[in-house]
UniProtKB/TrEMBL annotation:
GO terms for biological process: trehalose biosynthetic process. This is Trehalose 6-phosphate phosphatase. It comes from Raphanus sativus (Radish). One of its GO terms (molecular function) is trehalose-phosphatase activity. Belongs to the trehalose phosphatase family. Transmembrane segments: none annotated. The gene is LOC108823908.
Amino acid sequence: MMNQNVIVSDRKPILGSKTITISVSNSPLFSSPPTHFTFPRRKFLELLEAADKNSNKNNLGAGKIASWVDSMRDSSPTRLRSSSRDSVSDNNHKTSWIVRFPSALNMFDEIVNAAKGKKIVMFLDYDGTLSPIVEDPDKAYITHEMREVVKNVALNFPTAIVTGRSIDKVRSFVKLDEIYYAGSHGMDIEGPTNENTYGESDQGVLFQPASEFVPMIEKVVNILEEKTKWIPGAMVENNKFCLSVHFRRVDEKRWTALAEQVKSVLIDYPQLKLTQGRKVLEIRPTIKWDKGQALKFLLKSLGFEKSEDVVPVYIGDDRTDEDAFKVLRERGQGFGILVSKVPKETNASYSLQDPSQVNEFLKRLVEWKRKTVGEA
Ligand SMILES: O=P(O)(O)OC[C@H]1O[C@H](O[C@H]2O[C@H](CO)[C@@H](O)[C@H](O)[C@H]2O)[C@H](O)[C@@H](O)[C@@H]1O
């Protein structure tokens, strides 16, 4: 019995009566009426417990699809919901959010004052941070102006691009050799291939904690391409150590169907897990490695593991960047800057609205550095 939604018809009986009735309906794609089953209460609770244990393996238990789709709607990181939808309350909500996460441009002096006499290390997410979000992931180009400013940042501070994309793909967009790349959500880390001002060069691959997963990812990409080809707008992207299933161009009516296809594949691969980005389902190995771990790895590689004299600045827009913001909070070091126009739950300290503000912030940072070197 594939593609089924299980609906507990009444929650109260679970607590009180001896039997529980559930309705089982086929996928919303098909329109057959639901079938009703009545279970002895104890048996039902045993089944529920077993399903829950199973679901813990990779979050695929009965009823999870609905929550997947809910969170697909939420974009990322999770939007903060205001209690009322009227515009006055929305404005109050925005105002109180911006007080908690002020603009990094308005707080620029505070940020650089905290960095005086210390070494700034820059971490930059790619999509939504250095390039604006666009419909077609293959056309998420960085502007010439942004490339120039990132290059100047890299000439002044050790700089890494930390992205969910494969290194090959992001390199083909960014086209800079003097920076670090942490691709596939940090599971593929490479050093600069041109000598940078820190004398680091030709470092090539530094760390690939999930290399044994490459053949599995390739296989899953092929299966998912086959299984989703009938869903208009769905796109599967091979990010080498992980993969993305895009639904930005999929009609919302088909999101459940898409999530079900992804689920049906993930069930056979308990070594893989699902995370979510902006209108994208991301599938990656269950290893404990993420953008936060990549940030720690890079700081250690740069000799700053225990240093008090480093100020890591991480700029990102995505739910996956939260892992890095969290690491900075836990270390009590540096600043996370969330790129977002709308209030979102975040572990960042500051905010910027969009890539053009990121560009402005980076330019000011370079100017500040040049000025302080000139003054010294
Ligand atoms: O870590 P990031 O650099 O932010 O990468 C995360 C995902 O970014 C890309 O998808 C996102 O950007 C696309 C282009 O603007 C957009 O069409 C898509 O809806 C976004 O989710 C990338 O294509 C994914 O593989 C990355 O996982």
